[in-house]
Design goal:
Structural class of chain B: alpha/beta
Strand order of the largest sheet of chain A: 1-4-6-7-8-9-10
CATH architecture of chain B: Alpha-Beta Barrel
Shape of chain B: globular
Helix content of chain B: 40-55%
Low-confidence stretches of chain B: none
Number of strands of chain B: 10
Strand content of chain B: 5-15%
CATH class of chain B: Alpha Beta
Number of strands of chain A: 10
Oligomer: heterodimer
Mean pLDDT of chain A: 94
Shape of chain A: globular
Strand content of chain A: 5-15%
Helix content of chain A: 40-55%
CATH architecture of one domain in chain A: Alpha-Beta Barrel
Mean pLDDT of chain B: 97
CATH topology of one domain in chain A: TIM Barrel
Structural class of chain A: alpha/beta
Low-confidence stretches of chain A: none
Largest interface: A-B, 35 and 35 residues
Distance between the termini of chain B: 19 Å
Distance between the termini of chain A: 19 Å
Order of helices and strands of chain A: HHEEHHEHEHEHEHHEHEHEHEH
CATH class of one domain in chain A: Alpha Beta
Largest sheet of chain A: 7 strands, parallel
CATH topology of chain B: TIM Barrel
Largest sheet of chain B: 7 strands, parallel
Number of helices of chain A: 13
Amino acid sequence: MPRDADRILTTHVGSLVRPPKIVEYVDAMERGLAVDQAAFDELLQQSIDEVVRRQQQAGIDIVSDGEFGKFRSWNFYVLARLGGIEERAIVESQGGSRDRQLFPEFYAEYFPTQKLPKRGTVYTVGPVKYTGQAALKKDIDIFKKSLKGVDVEGFLPVVAPASAVPMFKNEYYKNEEEAIFAVAEALREEYKTIVDSGLYVQIDDAFLPYVYDLSFGSADLEGFRKWAQVRVDALNHALQGIPEEKVRYHICWGSFNTPHVGDVPLRDIVDLVTQVKAGAYCIEMGNPRHEHEWRVWETAKLPAGRKLVPGVISHSTNVVEHPELVAERLVRLAKIVGRENVLGGTDCGFAQSPHVRRVHPSIQWAKLEALAEGARIASRELWGRKAA
Amino acid sequence: MRRSDDRILTTHVGSIIRTPELRKLAAAAKDNPGDIQKFNDAVRTATNDVVKRQLAAGVDVVNDGEYGKSSWANYVLERMSGFEHRPDKIYEAAWLGSDRVRFREFMEAEFPRGVKGSPGDACVAPVQYTGHDAVRRNIRDLKAALAANKAQEGFLTAVAPASTGYDAENEFYGTEREYIFAIADALREEYLEIHNAGLVLQVDDAVLANMYDHLMQQSPARYREWAELRVDALNHALRGIPEDNIRYHICFGSWHVPHVSDAPLEAIVDLMLKVKAGAYSIEAANVRHEHEWRVWEKVKFPKDKILVPGVVTHHTTTVEHPQLVAERIVRFARILGRENVIAGTDCGFAQTEGLQRVHPQVMWAKLESLAEGARLASQELWGKKAA
């Protein structure tokens, strides 16, 4: 991450609400209709040009491509880029399990409204290989072209092994561990290619915390930690040789606007998170289930040279964060881990799939502007008046 | 009014989501006056249930969920003479301020009333309070429920002059002052009924804050003049009722909108404190107003009064972590004194009988989290011995 700033830099988690025209194309492609691929590519370039400029105008220092080029969702886009797997028994998405048990009537009402992409169970059926070179090259080329002449840096979000195949079944490898390492090995190509292109890579891993609520729960924290440890090890395997400072790691507890009572406490997983060989950790801290967890950093150790990107604005409410609140959230964390180790970020993306929109786009932009304004206020407080 | 003498007490702003049965009966009673008795009977039973449920959730100072009223503010137009409904006239949603301009596209999609306006009422004859039977029924239902469930204290909400007829206009009185004071005189009768029954009176006044942005655009003096008249009228209506039996609630509107044009608390806090109440209930749990706890570092809070900050909010489905609730309570208590803080909510959960700001299961989880957070805060503020 950039090291020499004398102010709090801003970024976000990655996905932004797609322009309606892109959604139309995605919709057509998903329904198997023929589309004019060249026209779509042109639209994609224009839209990403525009969203890069818009982020810069909002005051974001390290911007994304909005994930406009990704299909299905923030994680399952990758299934089309992997060989040796099969997805079977595709069904409607379901929400978290313990939370669902606590709030069954709420879930029954909420989930059908969410337009979530259908998903199936992934089986490893042969040697897992990365086959997404062309799609990845297109993402990188478009984004780099959009970044030319704009005074920002770029990060490209991609998926972590745990979240690429969260609930998979192994039919090929000796055991599950071997299979997940094979997935990691394949994803390594995606990570390395992005960093080699000069962009930051952000590795998204919402399922790492989320599987606690889905499959384990507080009664089996140890079982969950074992499950997670294998995945963290696999991710570190994939990151071998990639410079840490070019890597960001994002965890969250699922972006659904649900009660989140079943979420695993950060303190129970923070040691796993900081094992990941990444220069920055993007973690939710802008919603009322996780806001208090800034105190975790009073005792947890942030490894030297690594940074925190706390969510200081959230997709979980339409109300736009007051810049003074954003500043307060940044300052209290900076006072613990050092002002040079904090960037202002978001809880999660604003559009985890092309069809999802967590808040109206005008609210998304107002929130990103509040983030930038709050970071300016925090910088003045932390560096004195001279901060930009 | 009970105080947080040896632990942080809990309460909320008032409206609780109605049961599906109650909604159905309310609709039926509107269509057919013969069904009113059936509705009133159901309200009595439901009031008992909702008091029991609040106590079970850990709420100390409870109410009737506003089950016996159609809404937090406009219910009072059913209890006053002098107003005539104007179904064909559209009243601009001035109370939304410039959010409705800046976020027009969002409003059109998700809150059309914000840009289209809605029908309202006109005052065409002398305003007189006619709701004695209705408020007495509310009082009777709540008091019966408090006794049956051994609740120590109950509050009943009533609307303030500034918030009465927010989509209404005066065509009868010669001056704005006469109109507002006539409303205040009518409301006084409701306030007295509640007070004389031995209940804590909560006066709800969202509109005092809501009109800030719209009137400030005319001029700061215009807002001040508008608000001061209404605060004076409220104090006129409250005269003689001991402050210690009154809570005053202001908020910035419960709509799930950006709230970028909300009044800063700092700009209106002096108006709020002018109201002769013993407790003030304000928003402090949503992301537009959470930072305003710092206002109390600068503004002197009157001695012996109580602040009821919102420490859980209707603005997000995510349930507040009890540790966050405790953190919020403790920082208020450190500034104001622990005995001067009661933990509350930002606003109600159902401002009209058909509305739900979050799913009812989520609402109850939030109230339980409020109580759990207050327990954690009490342990921190009084040491382990706190209940």
